[in-house]
Specification:
The chain is an alpha/beta fold. It contains eleven helices and ten strands. Strands 2-1-3-10-4 form a five-stranded mixed beta sheet. A five-stranded mixed beta sheet has the order 7-6-8-5-9.
Length: 260
Amino acid sequence: MIDRRDAAALRIGCVKYLNARPLIHGWGEPVVFGHPSVLCDRLAAGELDIALVSSFEFLRQPIYTVVDHVAVAADGPVYSVFVAHDRPLEQIEEIAVDPASRTSVNLLRCLLAERGLRPCLITDNAALSNTAGARLLIGDRAIRFRQDRGGGCEIWDLAAAWKELTGLPFVFALWLIRPEVENPARIAQELRCLRDENLRALESVIEGEREFAREFCSFYFRECLRFSFGATEKAGLFHFRALCHKHEILPPADTPLRIA
């Protein structure tokens, strides 16, 4: 276990979405919560030592040590990452995307390109609230949309589309540790232990949730998400990297995982 003084000295960040609760609940030391893109920038700038951030950040800049066996992933419909649209995908010319996202936006680019579709993606927060057109929504905002008024449009779940295309899980977020941080293996083990404790006591994690209903949290954590980063998740991540190269989102790379 990490000495509490070591843990307190760590500058740790975590995405502020419901999907991260089983990975951070009970950490006990200060945590910087934020949107994925903001946390990625702070981690890259050295303002954080470790953060649960977009998996695309590792693919874009593979300098980090990845905490093994822990992720926010999905092996089928994820519920909270989707395009809401009011006409067939083939007729869509423009999709508003959430500026907080990097992994999901690039997943969308790959999925569209694999279908031979190239609508314009625009970063526009205002357009995400419109009742017409097409929007990529992620995280808690996506959940609220579906619960409040998602019945009036079509939902294209990107994790389900990925599974249909590849047969693999999709990895949305990973714990990334900066290269200068000492003892990454000890930190990684602490985070794995925390994940394991929270999954064993998932009802306690759900009990502490104030925004979303207990029944929904149970469904979301147990049926939509998986919190492992094993062989199939790694295969999914590397397949995503290959498609990002194929569609000129990333340069070619075969950098191996540096794991702890």
